[in-house]
Amino acid sequence: MLTIFIQLILAGVLQGGTYALAAFGLSLIFCIAEVLNITHGEFLMLGGLVTYILFTATGWNPFVILLIVIPLFIFVGLIYQKAFIKPILSRPPRQLFFSSIVVTVGIATAIEDTTSFIWGPTVKGVSYSMPAFTAGGVVISSLRLTILILIIVLTVFLHFYLKKTFLGKAIRAILQNREGAMVIGINVPRVITFVFGIAISLAAVAGVFYVLQFTIGPYIGLPLTIRYVAIVMLGGSGSLIGSLVGGLILGVAETFAGFFLGAHWSLAVAFLALVLVLLLKPEGLFKHV
Amino acid sequence: MFKKWVTPLNVICILVLVGLLLLPRVLDPYWVVFMLLLFMYIGIGASFNITAGYLGYVNLGHYVFFGISAYGFAILYSKGFPFLFCLASGVLVTLIFATLISYPFLRLKGGYFALANFGLIKLFELVAGSLRNFTGGTQGITLTPGYRPFQTYYIFLATALFTVIVCYWIPRSKFGLALFSVREDEEVAAAFGIRVNRYKMKAYVLSSLFPALLGGTYAWYSAFIDPEVVFGTDKALLPVTMVMLGGTGTFLGPIMGAVFMMIIEELLWTSMWLPIWIKSLHLTMLGLILAAVGIFSPGGLVTLSPFTWFFNRIGFGRFLGASHKALNLEEG
Fold it and tell me: What is the pLDDT of residues A161-170, one digit of tens each?
């Protein structure tokens, strides 16, 4: 029983880490651009799809493919922002919010449908495995362990990126005080463009990890976006720690629900967590960065 | 005495109404079904506009009320209860559900509210697909089939008219004034003594009534429902697309949006000259239309100059504004 328990917690932590990576991107976009980016889950799906295509075509190591996916999706994010988000950014806040939902929901549907049309609605996975080892009766897959280590490395890297580099400092300045940041000469539209690049490549990285552990299908995007929003609300918007903790809570809760109730109840758990947090602590668990 | 009532507007309305009542007698059954779906779209779009346009809360899961009522109706009807009883209980269940869910949901701001509702409709799709012995799972529920387009035509016509009349009344009433002030600024509205939460709840529950009426009847008409038909993603996006296309917050917007949506769908599905791949990508088209409307024309079709000119010409100009009668007095 105890080993099952530990195994479930490990799986939950891993799933939560994957969630947290993408959710932090969504949270950044939400705070910096004041746009709710519903296409976020689609970019995770596309990241997984690119990995799948490259893996089946070349047979390279998925972690090498990761090095291709990151710059590719920074580029995709920049183009996406230029094409769809920039035209609506100049609207007043409430209208921007509505327009952003309408535009991104529309694009998300279009991406899902086109993907399903071109690559078919069947689920795909990358059959790449690494030897597992046993520690104290608990079976640990070294693939999952590698992913976990990579997630930790990425999170630490992000933390220092936000604290040390100029762009990171600019992002934090806008989070704390938008007008103040404009006054001291930070080019907010430019930062918004880069934030989209970073956030969407984070989603794609999460997609690579996702396709290594589970399978992807064209329709996983929107339910995932709903989970990310639940995480952002759970952890409080714009906070790296908040996204991490929110992601871990949701990941562990979903893994337990999936084990004891059945896999299709995991979205219900996310939904329940969301409603509970809204009732108890509407402003989220953590403040800004 | 009568001179006052004989305006071009009233004459047009009465002629249209009489025409719609007589239409099934002269029309091909195919077009009766077309009109019936058009009324359904108008009812759903106009009721979506109550929360999205008048209250300022975009409800991405508006269709969930349609689905709950349809399931409530179908479950009871398949057990042999009479039509009216099933419809009434379906609507009642929906209203109770809307009242309960409005408490946590209306505490959410803007986009969170929209997304939580979207999550709700996805959750219902899952639940309806999983509870096999209650809702029939993904197989859906099949009722005793029958040929009922004419009865459904009149029921849908009545419901759509009811919705349109309510939507006409709201921007002229005290209730509507409260909704519009909540839309403009919640805190200021509260400071002026409006019970913000109560009005938001009322608007939400009111907007759930019309899709509930339509949903139950739709289940009866089509004699088959499954999670995909009533909770699918394309269904969830339908009201948003329609109303954004027509114009949010205006009286004419949802109606125009519904008409255009029906025409677009009709062209996509039936025209022979379109290549087959466009038809398979019909959700993509829907999404791209939605995105294009959001980017290029946030006010919708009613703000485009040809339509504005036309409606002003026939005396419909006062239905183009997206505000309350009492709020734009200074604009004349």
Answer: 988 999 999 9
